[in-house]
Amino acid sequence: MELGKSEIASLSRFFRDEQKLLLKATGKLRQWLEQHFDLYHNGKTFVLNQSSKVALRKGIEQLYPRLNLLQGLPPKQTRLAVVDYVNNDKLADFKPNDHYVLVTSQAALTLYKTELLLPTGVSLRVPLAAIDITNLEAVIIVENQDVFDVWQQVNIDAKYQNALVFYRGNDSSVTKGLKTLLSLLPPNTEVLLFADLDPKGLEMAYTTPRVTGILAPSLDDIQNELSTYSQEVVYLRQLDSITYLHKQQHQGWQDLQQLILKQRFAIMQQAIVQRRLELKVFSC
């Protein structure tokens, strides 16, 4: 067991107060102290004197020789920087994707004011600072990586063929890097989400910042061309998303939402791309 950020912060506050001799510790901190030190406690509070407090600090500093207990962990550390203080790089404030996004495009990308044309099937993981967003008319967010990887095969209106395309992922939350990028976009930039046609995909449209529309085939194409691709067992596993959607009313894509809920559709992006069905925008 190792100390986490909150435990280090608690110890730092305790040692900064020279007069404090009662250390309140519960949960992980109490377990860690019990594991490494023979200290008296009455349940939630360790009772020390000045001598035992000095000994405790020296003991912790032997276990964490690079950590200044009086200062604690400095804020806003990357995983590279935090190992100057502790061995566990996961204690860093910044995760690898906090300042990076995965992007592709059929048109030339402008990175650090340099135009770059990507070969078919190639994407780049780039820092946010590299992307020129000042004149973007539209960006597209894609849920599944295998669809993102073959974006050039997606049947989409020519108006959006030159848009920047970003990988979202199918986790419950968007990466901080993508959230930051979306927050910096000009107010008139369209933000379109291309996700699975299931309750979870629709929930993403509500919870992904700045989304102005959903990319999906027409309602007729969904019913006539894709119904046999639906997986009801997948739909039934998404009860939390179904409950969430029943509480939402969104005029722009309400017909799409009602169709998915009524027919219990769970149609994956892969089927849409494979059938080469044209995507339309269900706007706000």
TrEMBL record:
GO terms for cellular component: chromosome. Residues 99-280 form the DUF7281 domain. Signal peptide: none annotated. It comes from the Bacteria. Coiled coil: none annotated. One of its GO terms (molecular function) is DNA binding. It holds the Pfam family DUF7281. InterPro entries: DUF7281, Spo11/TopoVI_A_sf. This is DUF7281 domain-containing protein. It comes from Paraglaciecola hydrolytica. The lineage of its organism: Bacteria, Pseudomonadati, Pseudomonadota, Gammaproteobacteria, Alteromonadales.
